[in-house]
Amino acid sequence: MKELHTFGWYAARIKPHLPKEAFKPVPARLWGGLAYLLVTVAGFLAIGLFDLHVVLNVLIACVLGASFAAMGFLGHEILHGTVVRKGWLRDLLGAIAFFPLSTGPSLWRKWHNLTHHVHTQDDENDPDSWPTLEKMLKQPFFRWVYRIPLPVRAFFSFCSLAIQFSAHSAKMFGVYIKEFNVKKRPKVWLELILPWATWISILFILGPIKWFFAFLLPLLIANFIVMSYISTNHRLNPLVPVNDPLANSLTVTVPKWVDVLHFNFSYHTEHHLFPGMSSKFYPLVKEHIKKMWPDRYHEMPMIKAMIALWKTPRLYFQGNELVDPRKGALYGSLGNGLDPARIMARSSMLKQETEVSDEFVNKESNDKTI
To answer: 47, 110, 230, 243: least surrounded by Cβ within 10 Å?
Structure first.
């Protein structure tokens, strides 16, 4: 692994080359949010007021799901303070944008801004990092999961993208609620309860079938879209002792029109260098990164990144490798031997592979004996 640098080290070298307006909020981004909000309201009204054919309901649900996801991307940008700077307005707009995903602004800033960004791909402190072999061996359920063949695991892992954001958000609420000041906890609870109370109320208004098309199916679609990005952000990258965005983050490429619809969410390395900058300027940041550190920067087409996720296990071994403990098969990570065009287990690590497999099997045997 190359020498690691902090995100501040990179940012200090790029900042002099960027225009001053790149560091100012861009409230015009709210027009896109308004468009998605109007589409969402129209979709709910269409499903609620008319008895449409199931095919039309499914199509509307797809549009709603895409809108939920895009509003979440805008909410992410808003809560980083890149759209408006006033705290109360930032939180209000962020709450509206994240309302379909039922994630409160206070929780999001604590979990994402103040923890994930500060400790990205840190084994102990990043709430979004995937576990190491050592941690997995201490959890009987996950040891059972990792006995399933990798292709089967990959299939169910991709299916679970449809619920992962909502599930992880609920988990993060449980993790962080006690860290909020006692006086602020009622507000954090309200930000959790209000969206779900709204969606459950709509269930009784619309009935279960229309509610499925108006909310539940769109929520599953939104989860899948959001997690397709989030799962490629870091899961092919190594765990690192230094928060180096060029080592621990991946930028994916999508068609330009998708970037427009998703507020440039694909530019993830750029985001970790300048989280307080509007994503409108990330293409410019990308140009400078590729000029200054072309050998460090990681980017690939979204589909290619998803295929790489399918073909590799989601478990770390010694920080910079991915391991399938069922066979003791080791795979590189980005910057550490992983070639997305030709993914295969390393054949030169036979001794380590045997040790990994033996540790996994021995742990299982010991548990059965006990």
So the answer is: 230
